[in-house]
Structure formats: C-alpha cells, structure tokens
Amino acid sequence: MNSRQKLLSGKTKYVIALLLLVLISLVFFVNTNSDFDLSRREVLLRRIGHEILLQSGDSTSRVLPIKKIAENEYQISFEKEFSFVTDALVNTTKRLLAKDYHVTDYVVNVIDCENSSVAYGYAISKNKKEDILACVGRKQPIACYKINIKFKPSDVVTANYKYFITGLAFLLLIGFVFWKLKPKKQLSKIDNNKQFTFGSVVFDAQKRQLEINKETIDLTATETRLLLIFASSPNETIERSRLQKEIWEDEGVIVGRSLDMFISKLRKKLELDPNINIVVVRGKGYRLEVNV
C-alpha cells in the first residue's frame, strides 16, 4: 500500500466518525428545536388567555392548561365566564402570535361551552389581503368560552425539514468527496508489468499486447485486466462472480452480459494459437486452457 493509500485509509475512521457525529447532532438539533418552538407557542397561547381576561376586567381567575386538540390546533380554556370585544381579541392574537416566527396563517374560533357553537371566528393570513374578519368592535356577552386556534400545517415541521435536508445534503457531499478521494481497490495482487508466456502466446500486460507467432495484437484495458487474471492462474477455474467483482463491481458498475462479450473477444484474439482457449466451466465460471 503506498503512502497516499495509507493516509486515506487512516482517515477512514475519522471520516466515518465525523459523519455519524454530524448526523446525531442534526437529529438532536431538529428534535430539540421542534420541542422548544412548540413549548414557546404554548406560552404565547397562555399569554393570549391572560390578556383576554384582563381586558374583561378579570385579574384573578385562572387560564386553564392549554390543550392540543389536533396536530396543529390548540384550545385555550378558562376557569370562569367572561365577555370580550371582538377587535380586542383579534389585535391581541395578532400581536402575540407575531412573536412566533413559524406562524404565518391561522384560524381562531371562539366556542360557546354550553352548546359548542362558534360564537365568533376569524382567519389571519401572512398576506393581509386574505384576512377574514367579521363583526369587529362588538362586545360579546358574558359566557363560558373556549378559544380554538388552528395553525396552518408545516410551520415548525417545514423549518425543521429544511434543517434536515440541508444536513443530509451536507452528509452526502462529504460522503461523495470521500468516495472520490478513496484509492481504487487493487483488483488482484498481480504484477501488471510482468510478461506472461503460454504456448506461443506472449502477453505483455503493461503494453496491453499479445504476440502470437510474431503477430502483435492490441488489447483494451478491460481485456488486459481479464487476461491478467487468467494468465496468473492458467488451467484453473476462475469463478464468474470473481471476474465480475474484480473487473467491474469494484469500480462501481455491475454488469450482466458484458463479461461474456469480453470473454468472446479474448477468445477470438487467442485463436491464432489453437492450443490456447478460454472455456466455460458450466455453473462455475471460466478457465484458460493451455494445452502445451
């Protein structure tokens, strides 16, 4: 193994550890960030309930625990009955929810506890022209109310999804760079500078040439690598899976009939010597037969 290969091999553990660390940190960040944002939102909802009671002249009764009644919907409920002015409710929710930077669009429904009917409702959009407001400025009678606020889906989720995609892209980039820098695996421990002689054939792997009966035949790079394996083990069966792996799969390409095609081409180039042939060993692979 040369010095460059040793250096990259030594770095492998550190690169893998870095990738794992980034991935774990990313997952932790996304989950932590999501939990924090949702908890902060619940505090803002309690603050809305608190200010509504103050506006009605109630400074002593409690805002009950915030309930999450659906995936993106929350309910503010109260200990006692109260009255409210519609525009004051609208302004309060807009002012406080503006502090939640994930919130863009939401719908507010004030529910009458006795019959579960909607006593008042409105919709707020990031685009103010799409706001839906009605009966602004009217004071609602004292009653038991619950306030349901439904947020447009994917506010917090979308933000965290972007973090995840960005982090994943970063991991893929690191992996790609590492893969490109990784030295090519040695296909077989064979001296490709060596000349092989079998029968009347002289095979020069370095020059990618065959010399048969004083006739020179050029080989492609793939043909050379195939013959290099056969020439190093004449009259021995070479498994098909080994040839595919060492010639193609280790280079990142999986082939089917390509191997048969190159074997056929090699046979034709070896035909000048009838004592040399590459034969099929059924169910196993191929063998370079040297009958000398």
Question: Would you write up a description of this structure?
Answer:
By secondary structure, the protein is α+β, with helices and mostly antiparallel strands. It is 43% helix and 24% strand. The chain has 6 helices and 14 strands. It has helices spanning 3-55, 86-97, 155-181, 221-232, 240-247, 258-270, and strands spanning 67-70, 73-77, 82-85, 106-112, 118-124, 139-143, 145-151, 195-198, 201-204, 209-212, 215-218, 237-239, 276-281, 285-290. The chain has a 5-stranded antiparallel beta sheet, covered by helices on one side. Strand 4 (106-112) and strand 5 form a beta hairpin. Helix 4 packs across helix 6 (258-270). The longest helix is centred in the first third of the chain and has 53 residues, at 3-55. The two termini are 37 Å apart. 16% of the residues are buried. The model is unreliable at 1-9 and 183-190 (pLDDT under 50).
What's the helix and strand layout?
Elements: H1 3-55, E1 67-70, E2 73-77, E3 82-85, H2 86-97, E4 106-112, E5 118-124, E6 139-143, E7 145-151, H3 155-181, E8 195-198, E9 201-204, E10 209-212, E11 215-218, H4 221-232, E12 237-239, H5 240-247, H6 258-270, E13 276-281, E14 285-290
Antiparallel strand pairs: 1-2, 2-7, 3-6, 4-5, 4-7, 8-9, 9-10, 10-11, 12-14, 13-14
